[in-house]
């Protein structure tokens, strides 16, 4: 079993549930080291005093906040620990909200919550099932690794999931960051065709259908270079659609999407039909074999029965002596 990266209590009302926090996701990036080009010399980073040029050990490094004018306020690690809230290892649920009301932009990273001991598993299950039934999420705050997090606690099948969240002031205003953005499109025909395209391309969400192609290509590149081979990928860069060609592009896209959907539907139907035929043929084969076996059994039994009914041959009578 995985090791908990945080442990504490979920508190809601007067109920406390002991839980452990576990990573729910893992990335599959390929690690690279840095080298000086043309050599096999590794590049290393050192913590160096910029005035003396000497390396400084980690335990002698403290943090400083820039307050302007080249002045810094130095803060010791112990001072940060003393003011950290939630030292009681508490996930205090402040309120419950409808899960659908939360903008996904607020979500940061997912974790699993599991009961810390079997004695309190029923309390864990009770909270999980109640959240699932009401489609609500508990909003809480907690401290982990020297940082306070805002979090939601929600039910996902048999497990409670904690999502760390961005605070409201951590989300940037798009108007301030991006400047002028387009207003609503007034083109009714184009909008209608764009809606048709979205509908034609709509389907069920199947996470397993999506693979990290780039990482696979990086693995192939590394493997090929290790074997002395060369890998070349040639893909054209996409180009922006000319506004004058937008209607034609939308119309062609809708037709192509409908063809693709029809093709997928036919393939699915063919697979189902093939599966049904195979099942029917298998059942018929079993039935035929059973019929042959039964017929043979009856024939043998009948043969034995006929032999039993066959009258015995009469012996010739002996003549009496004169």
Automatic annotation (TrEMBL):
The keyword Nucleotidyltransferase does not apply. CDD domains: KU_like. Residues 286-305 have a biased composition (Low complexity). Residues 256-322 are annotated as: Disordered. Keywords: DNA damage, DNA recombination, DNA repair, DNA-binding. Residues 53-183 form the Ku domain. GO terms for biological process: DNA recombination; double-strand break repair via nonhomologous end joining. GO terms for molecular function: double-stranded DNA binding. Residues 259-285, 306-322 have a biased composition (Basic residues). It holds the Pfam family Ku. With LigD forms a non-homologous end joining (NHEJ) DNA repair enzyme, which repairs dsDNA breaks with reduced fidelity. Binds linear dsDNA with 5'- and 3'- overhangs but not closed circular dsDNA nor ssDNA. Recruits and stimulates the ligase activity of LigD. HAMAP family: Prokaryotic_Ku (MF_01875). Belongs to the prokaryotic Ku family. Homodimer. Interacts with LigD. This is Non-homologous end joining protein Ku. It comes from Kribbella pratensis. The lineage of its organism: Bacteria, Bacillati, Actinomycetota, Actinomycetes, Propionibacteriales. The gene is ku.
